Amino acid sequence: MGCNLAIAGVTGAVGQEFLEILEERDFPFDSLKMLASSRSAGKKIEFKRKTYIVEELTKNSFKGINIALFSAGASRSKEFAPPAVEAGAIVVDNSSAYRMDPDVPLVIPEINPQAIAQHKGIIANPNCSTIIGIVPVWPLHKANPVKRMVVSTYQAASGAGQSAMLELEEQTREILAGKKPTCKAFKYQIAFNAFSHDSALQPNGYNLEEIKMVNETRKIYDCPDIAITCTCIRIPVFRAHCESINLEFTDPITPDQVRDLLSTAMGVTVLDDREHNRFPMPIDASGKDDIFVGRIRQDESIPENRGINIWVAGDQLRKGAALNAVQIAEKLL
Q: N or C terminus: fewer CB in 10 A for the chain?
């Protein structure tokens, strides 16, 4: 069965990724509406041997639409998702607007696909760092409940959009040519540098990205007691995020048990070659659907073998954003 599909924010980095993934997965649709801001209206986009004209996103854009994939930012989602639902569409929203709304399911299909059925017109896509971190932890948590997670992220420029990726490229050229780097998308130089994640700092000293990871993990796992702490950092990589994850389990667990559990886990590829010191890198994950996991080892500072360290890499634009949303849309069909 096909559907009438709309993409809001089609000209952005995630919007472009939506198109690539819809084509790759041969997502069945009868019609497709491409929507963006007034700046992009009138642009032509080639998709599946057909030319589409980008239309301006308005409150009247959704007549006859069954599924609307949103990646146009939180303020636009708040403005345009309710009229889309009123018009009869189901909205899969990639922004932070509805993630913590108790009436909106927050879904990763490998973890809680059953939550989709509870939707009231809107389904939220989690934050990219949350998805990349907790997909590989889930099969471990099911086998042996995780009591505490300590996460340090190494986040690519793509998390801040197309303009940030272009800025990384531009600054690299500028610095190599002996010029002063131009900072527009980011407050600080991203090329040859690393800095604390650029989301708003909260009174407790944590930034919003770190708080999102804590709250979203608890909601998706349906586990309000899980202890989580995060440090989120931007690094000069184009599009795949990496994370160092330290896990404290309820019962003893060995690295071999972790490898066994992850070797059959959906959406996960184990890349843990100690002999050649070969573990996941951003270039392994870029353009791939799976999240790569390696550096699987015992945390010897936690008694009774209840601690494990892992290192993960995942494509922020794919599984961290567009792919997850398309997987949700596939389940809706």
A: N
